[in-house]
Amino acid sequence: MKKLAIIGLGFIGQTVIDAINSQKIGYQIQAIYDIDEKAIEKVQTRLKNVRVMRNLSDFYDCDVVIECAVQSVVEKIFDKVLENNIYFIPMSIGAFVTNESLYLKYQNLNAEKKKFILLPSGAIGGFDSISAIALEGLNTVVLETRKPYHVFEKNAYVLKNNIHLNENKETIIFEGNAKEAAKQFPRSINVAARLSLATLGREETRVRILSDPTIKQNIHRILIESKVGSYEFVFKNKPSPTNPKTSWLAALSLISFLRKIQD
Ligand SMILES: NC(=O)c1ccc[n+]([C@@H]2O[C@H](COP(=O)([O-])OP(=O)(O)OC[C@H]3O[C@@H](n4cnc5c(N)ncnc54)[C@H](O)[C@@H]3O)[C@@H](O)[C@H]2O)c1
């Protein structure tokens, strides 16, 4: 059975622990880490013999490291996991687009090392078809993210650019590439990052962000034009029960991914 290290014991980390405890997936939880002592104690009451890591790189005896904390953790442990040939599943994928040095390191990894970095689909999906379409080349890839009107009311980008939010109909908040979107909207970047890494990269993948007063949940639409056809994938995600900023699907994508690689 593979041994897991889980860094970040919030919604996604807890969902992984629940899935292991209820035997939906078969892993041994070897080591855990969080900056919040209470989060660690909560896990320790359920898993008596789990090792608490002394620092972020204390995963020497694990086969797989899952990061479900914050983007800065991805950069801090990236070299160490690769040096040790440990499988690494980062959930804060936005780090690969926003952090210049990490972006370059990831782009320049050879195939042998890259196979240790495993990227779950997160809050979107369709990557099996997208990689098939990409075999004949992708002409355009657009991510259109719609969020409820109230999400943008105090948004820094909206205020700085004097964008007038229409209370009755949709308003385009941002149009640009994935790199610029990551800079301006750090909280919504994981989806754009995941899509851009799988398709045209952070400069060529387009992102459109809209405020939509008619919706209550986030909607991601992926639009692809290619030689083999035109495609539209739509994801209407519900927020997770404990962290309204995280789509429930993101945690489930990690569980289903862990199931695929468990043997
Ligand atoms: N790939 C995707 O599509 C996708 C979707 C949703 C969320 N995410 C990302 O996954 C991550 C986790 O999401 P979540 O909903 O579980 O968040 P959460 O806020 O519920 O939990 C995060 C946990 O990480 C801990 N933490 C914060 N900083 C830390 C640090 N420096 N070192 C160790 N632990 C630290 C917090 O104390 C908390 O317990 C976030 O970065 C989020 O943006 C990715």
Automatic annotation (TrEMBL):
Which residues of this protein are catalytic? 220
One record GO biological process: NAD+ biosynthetic process
Q: In Gene Ontology terms, what is one molecular function of this protein?
A: aspartate dehydrogenase [NAD(P)+] activity
Which Gene3D superfamilies does the protein's record reference? Dihydrodipicolinate Reductase, domain 2 (3.30.360.10), NAD(P)-binding Rossmann-like Domain (3.40.50.720)
Enzyme Commission numbers on file: 1.4.1.21
Give binding positions for NAD(+).
123, 190
Listed under catalytic activity are: L-aspartate + NADP(+) + H2O = oxaloacetate + NH4(+) + NADPH + H(+); L-aspartate + NAD(+) + H2O = oxaloacetate + NH4(+) + NADH + H(+)
Q: Which UniProt keywords apply?
A: NAD, NADP, Oxidoreductase, Pyridine nucleotide biosynthesis
Q: Give all residue intervals belonging to the Aspartate/homoserine dehydrogenase NAD-binding domain.
A: 8-112
Q: Which Pfam families match?
A: Asp_DH_C (PF01958), NAD_binding_3 (PF03447)
Q: Which InterPro entries match?
A: Asp/hSer_DH_NAD-bd, Asp_DH, Asp_DH_prok, L-Asp_DH, NAD(P)-bd_dom_sf
The UniProt record lists the Aspartate dehydrogenase domain at 168-255
The pathway this protein participates in, as annotated, is: Cofactor biosynthesis; NAD(+) biosynthesis; iminoaspartate from L-aspartate (dehydrogenase route): step 1/1
* Annotated function: Specifically catalyzes the NAD or NADP-dependent dehydrogenation of L-aspartate to iminoaspartate.
Miscellaneous: The iminoaspartate product is unstable in aqueous solution and can decompose to oxaloacetate and ammonia.
HAMAP family, per the entry: NadX (MF_01265)
Family indicated by similarity: Belongs to the L-aspartate dehydrogenase family.
Protein name as annotated: L-aspartate dehydrogenase
Its source organism is Candidatus Heimdallarchaeum endolithica
Gene behind this chain?
Answer: nadX
